[in-house]
Amino acid sequence: CQLAGSSLPATVTQSLARDDFRVLAAISSSGNYEKIVARKDLGIRRPADLRGRRVAVVEGSSAHYFLDTLLAAHGMSPAEVSKVFLPAERVNSAVLAGKAEAAAHWGSYVLDLTRDLGSRAQLLEAPGLVISPFLLLVRRDYAQSHPAVLQSVLRALVKAEDMAHRQT
Fold this sequence. Notes:
Layout: E1 3-7, H1 8-17, E2 21-30, E3 34-39, E4 54-57, H2 62-73, E5 82-85, H3 88-96, E6 102-106, H4 107-117, E7 121-124, E8 132-139, H5 140-145, H6 147-167
Parallel strand pairs: 4-5, 4-6
Antiparallel strand pairs: 1-8, 2-8, 3-6, 3-7
């Protein structure tokens, strides 16, 4: 893989461990992408109710950063919840199976878990608390050997953005 997308927290985490990639562009940004889906039927209705609970989350992800920031915004330490670190595709099943009482996640995962829990779901969100840029990354060696290809990719992204603006 020569190009990949990544959230800012995951990119920063990986940049501390490796130096074989570069940020090519920020391709989107959201102030309400990450959310927490909690088990309302287990008494979680607000962020303070997460204290002492198990929260499934992808370690080092934008959802992990959102969880810690939300806790801090509500006067709690990240250590006041028990984080259950799992791959993205296993977070929701941990909540459904009772291995966690809440999940910090993003995008369609949030929609799916909310749907699967139905009336038992409590959505905890904080629009604007965390601004999450999504980055386009490139392997360092590829960037050095294929600058014209990357210029074409960037031009295509700009054209796509212009087209999207014209259609809205």
